[in-house]
Design goal:
Elements (H helix, E strand, L loop, with lengths): L8 H51 L20 H7 L32 E3 L2 E3 L1 E4 L39 E5 L4 E2 L34 E6 L4 E5 L39
Parallel strand pairs: 3-5
Antiparallel strand pairs: 1-2, 3-4, 4-6, 6-7
Amino acid sequence: MNRRKAFTLVELLVVIAIIALLMAILMPALNRVKAQAKRTACLAMLKQWGLMFAMYCESNEDHFFSGEFNGGRGGMGSGKFWRECMRQFSKDEKMWCCPQAVNPHQAGIARGDWSHVAWEVGGDVGSFGLNGWILNLPWAKTAEGRADGWGRGPANWHWYTPYQANANDIPVFTGSWWVDSWPRETDSPPPTAAGPDDTPGTNEMNRVCVDRHDGFVDCLFMDWSARSVGLKELWTLKWSKGYKTNGLWTKAGRVNPPWPQWMKHYKDY
């Protein structure tokens, strides 16, 4: 009767080593597939938001939000003006978060890397933010005839309505670590991937320059299309009517001063 030969210790070690090697080879590929799946899901969410924004504008005489609600600004800060208006169209809470950033930052705890952290305000949790320059500002007693956008002006830089030329280059809703932003071409990039402390009214491009998808952040445009945008490409988009797309941080502007170290290896635009 033949006795079954058992594995020797050396043979077991060889098998374990081969399995470990295969795992080391496969894990990066699996992580890339997982990251790609999250980016695809994020873009799908933004396309759904595009439909919801289109429905809102259609029901609002083809205009965006005024920045007010029920006739005034009272209590409408921190993006509540758009969150309340869009709530009827976006009742699924999962729609508010990119799959790469679903856990909100907790007050009193060190921020860490904002790129994969959601915001939490007024009971809402999300990781997308509105381009504040889209606002349809209300009439007011100012030299321009309209108020500014929550302190951001001039008023005539705002878009008011989605019916614009080159709408596919005008951001509406993007990955962000805050609920809204008013970017300018002179805004400096974050010094680190974690981003700086928030400075409302200054350098608000920092709110959307978040490394969500390995050098990219997803963006919904005014023609209701959605695509991934290179972090450096953010400075080339037409954020407002007065925004210069050939500013200092673009190839046309010769990128002077240089990008911070964490962004240098990403593609220039």
